[in-house]
Amino acid sequence: MAQQVLVLVGTRKGAFLAESDAARRSWQLRGPFCETWPTNHVVADPASGTLYAGGGNEWFGPAVWKSSDFGASWTHSSQGLAYEAGQAPVKSVWSLAVAADGTLYAGVEPAGLFRSTDGGGSWTHLDGLQKHPTRPEWHPGGAGLILHSLVLDPADANKIWVGISAAGVFASEDGGLTWETRNRGTRADFMPEGQNYPEFGQCVHCLVMAPGGRGRLYQQNHCGMYRSDDGGRSWESIEEGLPSSFGFPAAVHPRDPDGLYLIPLNGDIKGRFMPEGNAAVWRTGDAGASWRAQRAGLPQGGAYFNVLRQAMATDTLEPAGVYFGSNAGGLYASADEGESWHCIAPHLPTITSVETLVIER
Amino acid sequence: MAGERPADMPAPVLVRLPPHLVVLFPGAARQVALPAASVAELVDGLDALWPGMRERICDETPAIRRHINIFVDGRRARLSTPLPPGADVFVITAISGG
Question: Which CDD domains does the entry link to (chain A) (predicted)?
Fold first, then answer.
């Protein structure tokens, strides 16, 4: 038995898998899967090794795809993945998360949350978000009214956090029945002066949970980077020392709750490129108090790409691997916690998501 | 007489499906003859043959999906459109994407 790492890649034209041994020096790419459907998120159930891919096709609607043989074969379903008759139809699946007991959650556009207890075969709408008093006032961000971040508490199956653009962060402590806003301390710079800290309406880009079980969350927002040490009830800016306050993805270190990776771009109205065309991942090892650019092996000069909100991840190996995929289709990997980088697939379609799975076989 | 349909069963129509729909359902065929008196009944029949095909063709409005057209004897149809016996039905996807 040897450890293998799978990098699960969602793209605008199907899902791909990049596979390596634990050294992570040589990679094999497989795909495209899911009939080249636009795929927003590919995740794995680490307990079973089952892969799930969520997306939506302009012709055929939303679906969650499933593979129980590491990508060799796939099936799809969207039974129950629909709002009530007469509502705006579900357009696509944006985010997936697997609970410790195998329960599968799907966040969709227009924003809502669904749950499957049969491995994605059928879905039930958790309609608590639709009933939230702020729901009539949610307005879509540039990518639509999308539920893109889905965070489950590994210690408490009833605790769920979601990020919705541009409605903000919401949390449930009863398994999705009821929700409360969790945006205190995060800015909405796009609102009129004096209204920049609303209860909701912030443009959250990515929400992640730190390891360690102490309720620490990080978020990359349209307007800043933040840390919360109380499950999102209050947020503190951690953007000082970064080249901008704008970016999309965030990825936590697998074991260090103070370790976080971000990819700041040059700004929201300047093209949203790598700053000065020089690609870098920025790392903190002290929960956001200080930052360091990690750019060895990444393109310096002429790198006018961005990295989308679900397109960065770490693996669980030692030292941790870090991965990101660009909108220009480049998939980059580091086997040493971001110190050095290699492009492991230069010409994929636009990459929408990157996740990892470490298996023994 | 063998093959004679019961009096309450509609006459069969011939439906042609696009390749990127058929590929989603193992065993599905590009052409199929089905008894159906309306487009909605036709979709019911397709879903009975290949479970899940309804969700691919229709949304929860319920309506035919925005980027799919169903043509009956050369005319664009809705779910409520009646099907005359022996109708020629095409399920067609819009040209889109990049």
Answer: Sialidase_non-viral
DSSP string of A128-196, one letter each residue: TTTTSTTGGG---BTTBSEEEEEEE-TT-TT-EEEEEETTEEEEESSTTSS-EE--TT---TTSPTT-S
On chain B, the residues whose CB falls within 8 A of the CB of A81 are 55
Domain that includes residue A344, residue range: 3-360
User: What is the distance between the alpha carbons of residues A7 and B80, in angstroms, rounded to a whole number?
Assistant: 46
Alpha carbon of A326: minimum distance to chain B alpha carbons (Å) = 18
Q: Which of A164, A185, A187, A182 is nearest to A172 (CA)?
A: A182
Among the partner-chain residues B20, B52, B97, the one whose CB lies closest to the CB of A77 is B52
Angle at A302 between CA A32 and CA A337, to 5 degrees: 65
Q: What does the pLDDT look like over A150-174, one tens digit per residue?
A: 999 999 999 999 999 989 999 999 9
| Structural domains of chain B in order of their starting residue, each with its CATH number | 29-93 (3.10.20.30)
Alpha carbon distance A105, A98 (integer Å): 6
Asked if A61's CB is within 8 angstroms of B93's CB, the reply is no
In whole angstroms, give the CA distance from residue A355 to residue A312: 7
Q: Number of A:B CB contacts under 8 A?
A: 51
Nearest CA in chain B to A82: B60
Q: Tokens representing A239?
A: 């953007």
ipTM of the complex: 0.89
Instruction: Indicate the residue type of A360.
Output: E
Q: Is-contact A53 A42, C-beta < 8 A?
A: yes
How many domains would you assign to chain A?
Answer: 1
Q: Are A344 and A328 in contact (CB under 8 A)?
A: no
Supply the pTM of this predicted model.
Answer: 0.96
* pLDDT tens column, B40-85: 999 999 999 999 999 999 999 999 999 999 999 999 999 999 999 9
